Amino acid sequence: MSVAIKFEHVDKSFSDHAFLTGGLKNYVLNGFKASQYDRNHKVLEDISFEIPHGSTVGFIGRNGAGKSTLLGLIAGVMRPNSGKITVDGRVSSMLELGAGFHPDLSGRENIELYGVVLGFSRREIRKRLDEIVAFAELEEHIDTPIRFYSSGMLARLGFAVVSQLDPEILLVDEVLGVGDYRFQAKCAEVMKRFRAAGGTVVLVSHSAADIINLCDRAFFIENHRIVASGDPKEVIAKYQPPAPPAA
Predict the structure, then answer these.
(1) Which end of the chain is flanked by fewer CB atoms within 10 Å, N or C?
(2) Cβ distance 12 to 69 under 8 Å?
(3) Distance (Å, whole) CA 88 – CA 84
(4) Would you state the CATH architecture of domain 1-13+48-89+168-247?
(5) Which one-letter DSSP state was computed for residue 231?
(6) Cβ neighbours around 127 below 10 Å, total
């Protein structure tokens, strides 16, 4: 089976720039010492894995483990400090539904804007416009500026754009926990159809049930590294070891 995503010994760090916290005067007076305060915070270290086309994999780990950073690297919005990342396929990201929308534009105008940001042509977007609006269930509000939308309406619109434009690789960061129960069920149904059609899904979630029910394989990230991978149930057992019996 061909490979959709491949990481080879990838490292990612962010600079703390601690010397800037003293203000401009401190920087001017002590700028020559800046390097001793400029510390790197390592987020991911020596990350290597392969994800075949058509598979669904989940990444799990505690807050700050680097899961969302990893999705950002796959999406291309971040670059690694070292190592190699190969992505074969058009990527759509459900990392923060509604990010990139402009509050002064209508829902209809934002569909075009969001679609272009995701890499689709205006012709492709306009061809699917009615389907996107119907899926979002926003027919009555689609020409209203989105500054008047609720957070749930924004989430529905963002999900509709991403899910209805036929991505090849879908990145999902805790999106299944957004909105009410009905919307969450709709998200899960779209993901199941996408998987059945041969799409590749990379899911980040704190929900053991989502990882077990949706994923073919799971990865556990801890201390900036992948410490376990394989069958989702076995990986979840390492992430959430059983509580000791009561005395």
Answers:
(1) C
(2) yes
(3) 13
(4) 3-Layer(aba) Sandwich (3.40)
(5) S
(6) 12
For the chain, what are the domain ranges?
Answer: 1-13+48-89+168-247, 98-166
What average pLDDT does this structure show over 188-200?
Answer: 83
pLDDT-based confidence at residue 90 (cuts at 50, 70, 90) = confident
Sheet holding 3-15, edge to edge: 40-52, 3-15, 82-87
Kindly state the average pLDDT of the residues 51-76: 91
Strand locations in the chain (E): 3-15, 40-52, 56-60, 82-87, 91-94, 169-173, 200-204, 217-222, 225-230
Rounded distance between C-alpha atoms, residue 38 and residue 20, angstroms: 9
Q: Tell me the C-alpha distance between 8 and 44, whole Å.
A: 12
Compute the residue count for the chain. Answer: 247
CB under 8 Å to 155, separation ≥6 — which residues? 97, 98, 178, 179, 183
Q: What is the Cα gyration radius of the chain?
A: 21
Instruction: Compute how many other C-beta atoms are within 10 angstroms of the C-beta atom of residue 97.
Output: 24
Helix (H, G, I), strand (E, B) or coil at 5: strand
Structure token digits, residue 239: 């992430």
Lowest mean pLDDT among 102-111, 175-184, 227-236: 175-184
- What does the pLDDT look like over 196-207, one tens digit per residue? 888 999 998 888
The rounded distance, in Å, linking the Cα atoms of 96 and 150 is 15
Q: Among residues of the chain, what percentage have pLDDT more than 70?
A: 81
Distance of CA 188 to the CA centre of its chain: 15
Residue type, 172: V
The reported pLDDT for the residue numbered 19 is: 45
pTM above 0.85, yes or no: no
For range 126-134, the mean pLDDT: 90
